[in-house]
Amino acid sequence: MISGKSFEYKKAVLDCIHEGLIESLGIADWDRFQRIVEIDREFFETSPNKTENFMIIELTLFPGRSKEQKRNAIESITSKLCTRLSIQAADIFIVIHEPPLEN
Asked: Are 18 and 34 in contact (CB under 8 A)?
């Protein structure tokens, strides 16, 4: 995310993501391994129509979840971020990585 947000804002982002994963994928509450990487605006290129709230969320999930589960995760996380933090859906970019189980 673009640097400069408050501790409370960042904590809310992490909470929205975790709650979205619990609801959509059924992960356990303890299964929470998250980090935020902040980048100064001058080093974060985006299209001109993105706001200061733009963020890229990368989820690493082992294979086995259906397309519907992954879609539900994206929709749930996006909805929570929009509702709680007034982030526009267009400012939320979610990528799912699925490494093989042996990795």
From this structure: yes
Distance CA 8, CA 88 (A): 18
92 closest CA partner among 79, 69, 9, 11: 79
Work out the pLDDT band at 103, boundaries 50, 70, 90. confident
pTM: 0.93
Q: How far apart, in whole angstroms, are the C-alpha atoms of residue 92 and residue 78?
A: 7
Residues in Cβ contact with 19 at an 8 Å cutoff, skipping those fewer than 6 apart: 76, 80
**Tens digits of per-residue pLDDT, 23-67?**
999 999 999 999 999 999 999 999 999 999 999 999 999 899 999
**Helical ranges in 26-101 per DSSP H:** 67-85
Fold held by 7-37+51-97? Macrophage Migration Inhibitory Factor (3.30.429)
